[in-house]
């Protein structure tokens, strides 16, 4: 293990960075959930934008009719 000390230093540095992010209130899961604001009417999956939602709907639910909010996208 030639990188033993460097590995330990890197782990300590990353731990300090994660602790600082926690103290600042930065939560990646909450931020990701906040960005997902379109919900599929069939499977209830969350999508970030209408274009992705339409692609999802056309690929995953081809037999279901397209919802009204996706007609214009």
Structural notes for this entry:
The protein has about 70 residues and is mainly α. The chain has two domains: about 1-30; about 35-70, no CATH class. It contains three helices and two strands. The chain has a two-stranded antiparallel sheet. A hairpin with a 6-residue loop joins strand 1 and strand 2 (about 45). The chain is elongated. It starts with a helix and ends in a 13-residue tail after the last helix. The mean pLDDT is about 90. It is found in: Cytoplasm; Nucleus. InterPro entries: MBS1/2-like, SERF-like_N, ZNF706/At2g23090_sf. Its main location: cytoplasm.
Topology readout:
Elements: H1 4-24, H2 28-35, E1 38-39, E2 46-47, H3 50-60
Antiparallel strand pairs: 1-2
Biased composition (Low complexity): 1-13
Keywords: Cytoplasm, Nucleus
Biased composition (Basic and acidic residues): 16-26
Query: Which regions have little confidence, pLDDT < 50, spanning 5+ residues?
Result: none
Q: How many helical elements?
A: 3
Largest sheet features? 2 strands, antiparallel
Provide the number of structural domains: 2
Estimated share of beta-strand residues: 5-15%
H/E element order: HHEEH
Please state the overall shape, judged from the principal axes of the Cα atoms: elongated
Whole-number radius of gyration?
21 Å
Considering the chains and any ligands shown, give keywords for the structure.
73 residues, mainly alpha, two-stranded antiparallel ribbon, 3 helices, 55% helix, 5% strand, elongated, 4F5 domain-containing protein, nucleus, SERF-like_N, ZNF706/At2g23090_sf
């Amino acid at each position: 293990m030639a990188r033993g000390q460097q590995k330990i230093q890197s782990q300590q540095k990353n731990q300090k960075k994660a602790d600082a992010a926690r103290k600042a209130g930065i939560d990646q899961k909450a931020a990701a959930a906040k960005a997902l604001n379109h919900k599929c009417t069939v499977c209830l999956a969350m999508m970030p934008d209408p274009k992705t939602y339409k692609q999802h709907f056309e690929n995953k639910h081809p037999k279901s009719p397209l919802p009204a909010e996706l007609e214009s996208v």
